[in-house]
């Protein structure tokens, strides 16, 4: 590479006519800006989203809400509920290939995520559904359902729910499965996490999680 | 700096250049046999010689015959490059070839629309992937032929300019051959 | 944009025109537009429930749109598309200044430097990630990586960028593009425009792989293993797409260099006289032309497996098929990386020894046989999946391939034998490279043994082995080549003391890091784990320290080369006394390399009394040795013209 002094670049010549000369400063500033934007999207996405949410808030959802599970994320992954509202969550597994569940609680025990040691099924220290009356209906493609401490009413034959014990409150759906959950938002205000712990937390670790902000009545 | 680089840059395709780029094009086309070898091997591995009874043999033959015709017409465009009104004759042949190719692609799209084979099944997934590969190559080939048609309309038929048309015809003939081979593998063997 | 108008007023004022946008920024803008167009189209045609704006299928098509937009924005629109369609264009290739390295170019030297620039960028990014990995491994539990999947993604990005954007690119796309035409006395490459397009696919690939975590983690490493990838999030899509762009770029390099060597050799440069480095390039280019389409097809199938989804490689399909298809490419890939290094050894050693190359034919035969055998050893990566009867042939061929590899050593050692070698910086790097590759090769012989392999599979022994072969051959030889050719590339040279010091530090840090990998592996350290049993910590901690020194040493070398490039002492025209044609023009070479066509009249590797200068620069025509015009007296250009060639545009 021949080294050109800046002086040379200003010298007009037939090849580098002034119209062809793009700006050096624009180039440097532009690429630096793109680099910063890239770094922010790569490392600081969640902080940006949280900041935007704290500034603009998030609309309260009530009535019928769809919750879709994909590989590995939920849509939506953030909801705002209000205590005392009547909710019907239609939980649908949209994956073609993977089983997904919906658990909700607080303080996931991340020691379990280490590579060694046992992996118990109840990751939440506090299960949101403890003592909450909830009605399940329209089961389709249910792999299993663990009621834990929830007060559950089943619509239709119980066999369709494949009720199991052990672990958090968790409906687990086969690919394409769906389930309706009807309940009144209990008086448990604050921020709750939800997630999918299938395949020994791989889904959760990979980002299959979300949050519900419950506002006081 | 050498003297007059600009002149060299815009210079016509010299005979040595012509032979070099033709070699490169043919070599490139030869490398593109590899993907089809992989796909045909996968087809053999996954479902052997099974052909779904729902597969419409008529459409299979129609597509292959249309592509063969299209390739033959395109090849005639190369032979028509000399003589009077070469430009019109070349343009007509290229357009006919592209039209026949489009028709062949429509037969595949129609078959896809019938959805007679599930992409989850062994036959279905290889059928969709191999015919899909044919379609991707055909789309690229059509773009090349289209560029050749556009270019011929705007420029003269001097040999250094004709290379684009020639290259697109080479590629189009390859697309047709790959198509016919796919038809044999998917519908017959 | 007004500050761009720095040119003083000339006689007649040009019509007012906004200064063009820097091509790189325009490329980013057009890429964003391309992504939005195709992504939105796919979302409209194939909406997902819940209406996410980016889905698996949409991001694949959006990426294609972004790649096309990027290429058009970087200059293809003006330089290729318009003239291709027969429209007039204002595009003129820039002949000087730093700007031509940041836009579309057709000069193989500019393209070669662009390849080197991007490859070094990929090396620094992937090396930085390696530093993070070593920092994580200083403790037996998770520290900077929150989850194991984060760590595995980092490992995957490190491996993918190192393999596809650096190891495959630097010596072939970079040094190959720059020096092959010079070494065969050519004035330009055959597919110069295509080559200029291909180089801009490298940043596409690097950025795609680097930003793959945006779509979610992937845990497969640089191999994209199925069915493991089946449980990965969509991040694996960007792995497949990024590698597709990078392999496409390398495929273009291969096609261009093969055609250039076929058709642009100087008069007298017969295949028997072809420089060794060029032989190395031709052999690996042929390997790439065979195997890259194969792996691209495999990756497209894996991509469809994910987005449609299909069942080729999932549990209900045939996972072993993916492994076979991958390693069919994967092992030749390793030789694609190493063979140019073997060639470089025997390029530099005769020059530094000023002694004729020993057994030149055998050195070439070695390269060619490595190329041919490399397609027969793939299953040695899968001994744990094979039956005994299937293992044995692969074990045999794997041990056989060390024989042609040995030819490279034989020629090098035979040349060094009783020579008065100049032990300067390039020579030092080459000797270090030979030593490191020897260690890598010998540990590979252990791994070729099925019984040992079953024990060492997936341990740090394997990691040590391939870092010794890849870094040991390609990176060390690459530094040797850059120091050797620095006077050619920049017209400037370096300080021997600094060069040697940096080389020795790098060598020591490299060996102290990776030799311990073998011991770690024997002690039971697994690959692919961010957390490990606590008894392995002391050694891992200490390895990490040496790894940081190694990282700093590489960085120091790159900075020092950059410094010498601009500020080094002026070098002579042929400072090493070499005989290959690239030294028979000014440094750096002018736009069309040689003012007049050089002719090759003797062997390029004979030194000593009575040998002549093999390159003469007489004013012949520009036609290559093999062109029809020189061989066929009946040849007439007008045969190609329909009306006698009277029509020109």
TrEMBL record, chain A:
Q: Which PROSITE patterns does this chain map to?
A: TAT
Q: Which InterPro entries match?
A: Cupredoxin, TAT_signal, TAT_signal_bac_arc
Q: Which residue ranges does the record annotate as region Disordered?
A: 1-21
Stretches of Basic and acidic residues bias are at 1-12
Name-wise, this protein is Tat pathway signal sequence
UniProtKB/TrEMBL annotation, chain B:
Q: Does the keyword Nucleotide-binding apply?
A: no
Provide the topology term for how it sits in the membrane: Multi-pass membrane protein
Q: Under what name is this protein listed? A: Heme-copper oxidase subunit III family profile domain-containing protein
The UniProt entry's sequence similarity note says: Belongs to the cytochrome c oxidase subunit 3 family.
Residue spans crossing the bilayer: 20-38, 58-75, 96-114, 126-149, 169-188
Q: Which SUPFAM superfamilies match?
A: Cytochrome c oxidase subunit III-like
Provide the species name: Sulfobacillus thermotolerans
Predominant subcellular localization, coarse grouping:
membrane
Q: What is the lineage of its organism?
A: Bacteria, Bacillati, Bacillota, Clostridia, Eubacteriales
Q: Which keywords does UniProt give here?
A: Membrane, Transmembrane, Transmembrane helix
Outline the extent of the Heme-copper oxidase subunit III family profile domain.
1-189
Which compartments does it reside in?
Cell membrane; Membrane
Instruction: Return the InterPro entries for the record.
Output: Cyt_c_oxidase-like_su3, Cyt_c_oxidase_su3-like_sf, Cyt_c_oxidase_su3_a-hlx
Domain of life assignment: Bacteria
Automatic annotation (TrEMBL), chain C:
Looking at the record, the residues that make up the Cytochrome oxidase subunit I profile domain are 96-601
Q: What's the short name of a Pfam family annotated to this entry? A: COX1
What membrane topology is annotated for this entry?
A: Multi-pass membrane protein
Q: Does the keyword Transmembrane apply?
A: yes
- Give the UniProt subcellular location, in the record's own words: Membrane
Which parts of the chain span the membrane according to its record?
60-89, 110-131, 151-176, 197-216, 236-263, 357-379, 391-416, 428-448, 468-486, 498-523, 543-563
Q: Which UniProt keywords apply?
A: Electron transport, Heme, Iron, Membrane, Metal-binding, Respiratory chain, Transmembrane, Transmembrane helix, Transport
Please give the InterPro entries that the UniProt record associates with this protein: Cyt_c_oxase-like_su1_dom (IPR023616), Cyt_c_oxase-like_su1_sf (IPR036927), Cyt_C_Oxase_1 (IPR000883), Cyt_c_Oxase_su1_BS (IPR023615)
NADP in keyword set: no
Task: Give the protein family.
Answer: Belongs to the heme-copper respiratory oxidase family.
Q: What the protein does?
A: Cytochrome c oxidase is the component of the respiratory chain that catalyzes the reduction of oxygen to water. Subunits 1-3 form the functional core of the enzyme complex. CO I is the catalytic subunit of the enzyme. Electrons originating in cytochrome c are transferred via the copper A center of subunit 2 and heme A of subunit 1 to the bimetallic center formed by heme A3 and copper B.
The name under which this protein is listed is: Cytochrome C oxidase subunit I
